[in-house]
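Before relying on records like the one below, remember that each one covers exactly one chain. Contacts with other chains, cofactors or solvent are not represented anywhere in the record.
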Amino acid sequence: MANSGGAVERPGAAPSRAGGGWGGEWRQGAGGCRRGVMVMDRYPPIADHGLVGDLQTAAMVSAQGVVDWFAAPRFDSPSVFAALLDHDRGGYFLLAPEDRGATCRQLYYPDTAVLVTRFMSPDGVGEIFDFMPPDRTGTPTDRHVLVRGVRAVRGTVRFVLECRPRFDYGRAGHELELRDGAAVFRAPGVTAYLRSTFPLRAEATGTGGDGLRDVRSEFVLNAGEVAAAVFTVCGPDGEPPEPPTPDGVVEMLWRTVEFWQRWVHGSRYRGRWPGIVNRSAITLKLLTYAPTGAPVAAATMGLPEQIGGERNWDYRYTWVRDGSLSVRALLDLGFTEEAAQFTRWLGERLGDRLRGREEIPGEPLQIMYRVDGDPELTEEVLPHLEGYRGSYPVRAGNAAADQLQLDIYGEALYALAEGREIGMRAGYHGWKNLARTLDWLADSWDRPDEGVWETRGGRDDFTFSRVMCWTAFDRGLRLAADFSRPADTARWTAARDTILEQVMERAWNAGERALAQSYGSDVLDASLLLIPRLGFLAPRTESWLSTLDAIDCTLVSDSLVYRYDPVASPDGLRGSEGTFSLCTFLYVDALARAGRLRPARYAFEKMQTYANHVGLFAEEIGPSGEQLGNFPQAFTHLSLIMAATTLDRALDEAGAWYQDD
């Protein structure tokens, strides 16, 4: 997805810092905790996490009971806990049994965003349930609550708590006050409260020996007993929260369970894979900023596409591309309000640079925005953070926002056209903005751009960008006809038809018998797997089937799909990357539309085995099957939904369990 910054040389390698506390003494395996392993591994695998959130922000919880990523008050705000990016300087919130030989398992309570981490040892079984009460108002707030309930299921369990916030990506110091049983952390512009049903004590754990600023506790629970720690982030003058009670926390838990189960049961999906589809839907909902309906690309920043490499981007923003394609996925599941809310947000972005002006200054759309529509995403390197397992630099913000990516106009029009089925139609001024955008595109489509993958190798005549410009005109013409709106249809039609002819003449590589990544190239690109869904070529025409065959031979590795070959098509960045999970699901979609149902089903069901233990996907799958990149990634989950619904429909129409080619 985002190759959003130039190469950055680190001024010096970070020293190997052991770090204090429980979190620095464990190694995690891909399946969670390992019993009795005392070898240092400060960074759990990316996949060893679940996600909780309140629809305005989210937290990552490792399978060892550590909150190692949390930004507030919004997804794109500075972090409060960021140990995933620097174990010592980032901050974390641990709650787990003191028995370091415990075996642990992590799961979601069914059809919810309530995460359960269960610890089993000879002396007893304990569990942590993490959740954030969801936003039910749609109003932005700087007050967010992370609830960490704890229970002894059997026997006797001794628990330990360590809370070490590090505000503003670890750049801002804070003061700690213990008052009325609460720990109060004060930093510039933010206050955080930790209240619990057990005593807390202050301790000095800063790497510089800079005083009492963190909190620790040990407590014992017997079978059936419940305790809780509630972490509340708010503004500097925020009201302190009420002290929690076990009964109150349990009541809050069941209200949260009811919210999520009621929401997911509104899905109309009745296909073959309800578990993974429902989990993907919940994940998309978790990654959507409720006040505006804008989805972020992922909950995290800085997680690498290659361990130790420089492909580390900030994905906590709203890409026009990702959000637009999510409309179709949401509509396929029956979540019409969520789809409508994003199209309204998208329409507002079209009006940002057009409203009340006769001339369009620059491009009508930016490729990404903050969740509130703010276009300012200035990128900075955070030199004090070592990065996940030494993957430096760590970037906040995203410089790709300034790139020219002409494909976004096709995705935007695709989303607006898909919205017709639920009665969404633009008012007069909204239509004028849309029409003026297409008039601008009629003058602008035939030029090089950075392309869908946001490369740093220079602009090119990317085939996918041209295909999406064709889509923009095609859908614009349909909308104009369907709603009888004024438009320069002759001009739009001429542009649409010219693009089709140009692509088939200049992007076609006779040697590969396929459409190439760019004009005159012999490099293949998995983004073109969207072509049959868009209708640019019919899914069973000879030219498309031969393109699909070429992609299969070149970019597919045992059903997993690379987006392109960076060696054959340099992207301006060092290092390599794994298979792109979005592209694997697009491959399934394209196979199903081509009638190749047996390989489509095989690829889809095999891909499910790469999900993590709670059904989540990052951006990429590495060479050893590990998940890489920011996590979880919305694009992957929305494409999973699209692939599942397409494949279900194709299998139903075939009337068979499998269908040979």
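Residues 127 and 247 are 17 Å apart (CA to CA).
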